[in-house]
Amino acid sequence: MGVYLNSAGPYTMYKSECSKPYFVDKSMIIKELLPLAEQGNNHVCITRPRRFGKTVMANMIGAFFGKREDGRSLFSKLLIGKENAVMEHVNQYNVIYISFNEMPRMCKSYGEYIRRIETRLICDLRETYPECRISEDDAVWDALTQVFAASGEKFVFVLDEWDFIFHRDFITKEDRQDYISFLSNLLKDKPYVSLTYMTGILPIAKYSSGSELNMFIEFSMVTQQSFSNYFGFTEAEVRELYQRYRNRTSSPLNVSMEGLRDWYNGYHTASGERVYNPRSVVAALGYNQLANYWTSSGPYDEIFYYIRNNIADVRNDLALMVAGEAVPAKVQEYAATSMNLQTKDEIFSAMVVYGFLSYEKGKVSIPNKELMDRFSDMVHKETSLGYINRLARESERMLAATLSGDTKTMAEILEYAHNTESPLLAYNSEAELSAVVNLVYLSARDSYDVEREEKGGVGYVDFIFYPKADRSADGIILELKVDHTPEEAISQIKEKNYMLRFLGKLGENAQYTGRVLGVGIGYDKEKKHHRCKVEVLRARIAEEMI
């Protein structure tokens, strides 16, 4: 029993996970993996964005198969515990569990990194199988072959974060190839392998030239349906977690089911099911607050990393996505491994693989508010984004002008927008006009929940701005019109009773004291001219509430 061979680590970590208040039971994956282990020489690679439950799952698999600890009492309480035929196999395998995201102290080379792994595993094998006379200088695969030849024993390999080393600055192209060769020599066509269960973010295909790792079957979120329900939280699972949250939280509830959906939902599996970011959901319920728990502490650094080499090509699509639109893209997951992303499709492919964009039916989009906030940070601060950045920086002034009824300034800002180089401003579609309006009101998202195309009255309203916390702040109902006047836009707001949507919100918040403003924006295509109108609609709502 050692550091990697039949380690106590996976069991200890998974037992701890099971005791947490917002634990989700995904143990039925074992029922699918067990036949593969029984057949022998099977290799599975699961790729998902970081913090999507890969390590928890790896710990569970190590805890179930490994001989070190008696896991029957733990697994008997889970869903898999009802599968008697499966439970007969608990703790019946030798498991080699390696977390590839662990590094030697002060590691500065691939040689130091891989030597630590090899040395530890050889040490485990020598201590466990002294009769095999394994030498310290033996290759790991030679040592394992000796064990199999002497005892017939096979191994389940659980390899977590296989691609971690590719992100280190000191890793060269030659190092990557050596690492791929290491995995191939260790696993491919080896009689001692019962099952390899490997996780990571990046797909194998791009790194493995020829047939080196072609024994793996890869399962990604975008292209493979199998195993998709075991990573990320489904709608039903989040609802069950939310009920736990309501039952155990004594302080005022600051998190709603609607809030969880807006902030953390929006990813799509290959089967079309929508899933939530699990880390963020658990953190929001645990800390009783909706916030950004998943992305890095830097406001936009990681996102900007992907688009920096081709800003001109992605800029218009980025503007549409920040406006809430989905844009066409040809996502090829292997493209994410490129060290020098150039084309728009390569860039969007990488962003899908890393979880910054969601992909469904040939289109990519920003999945939820958690990511939208990060994109907004980038748009506000990255001057190289050109007109997108300039419009976003005008958004504070635009909101202030709207609230004060300064239609002259509003029109000036929109005219300024129209004089930029953006082809979006041809307004050839409603989506393009909406994208521009989103950009010039981007700062409003700090204090408002901005919803688009909400059903209100007998029609659909373009934008409604609901105050987040300040119940004395003004609400806004905004209607866009091309080749119509802003007065006509205001009339439509009144005639179609768009305020009914706001009435519902007011019913939920009886102490709301703010005004409700009707905002009409009209654009004359022939004259290329904007006009704006702001009208106070609060009195009309007050009458309807009497």
Briefly characterize the structure.
This protein is 42% helix and 16% strand. The protein is of the alpha/beta class and 546 residues long.
Indicate the topology.
Elements: H1 9-18, H2 29-39, E1 42-47, H3 54-65, H4 72-75, H5 84-87, E2 94-99, H6 110-128, H7 140-151, E3 155-160, H8 173-187, E4 193-200, E5 217-220, H9 235-248, H10 257-264, E6 267-268, E7 274-275, H11 278-287, H12 301-307, H13 311-322, E8 327-328, H14 344-353, E9 358-360, E10 363-365, H15 369-381, H16 387-393, H17 395-404, H18 407-418, H19 430-440, E11 448-456, E12 459-467, E13 475-482, H20 486-495, H21 499-508, E14 516-524, E15 529-536, H22 538-545
Parallel strand pairs: 1-4, 1-5, 2-3, 3-4, 13-14
Antiparallel strand pairs: 6-7, 8-10, 9-10, 11-12, 12-13, 14-15
Helix pairs in contact: 1-3, 6-7, 9-11, 13-19, 15-16, 17-18
The largest β sheet comes out as: 5 strands, parallel
Number of helices: 22
* CATH architectural arrangement of the largest domain: 3-Layer(aba) Sandwich
Show unreliable segments.
Answer: 455-459, 540-546
Helix content: 40-55%
Task: Kindly estimate the percentage of residues that lie in beta strands according to DSSP.
Answer: 15-25%
> For the CA atoms, what is the radius of gyration?
28 Å
Distance separating the two termini: 75 Å
SSE-based structural type? alpha/beta
Number of strands: 15
The whole-number mean of residue pLDDT values reads 87
What is the CATH C level class of the largest domain, in words?
Alpha Beta
Strand order of the largest sheet: 2-3-4-1-5
CATH topology title of the largest domain: Rossmann fold
Return the domain count: 3
Shape: elongated
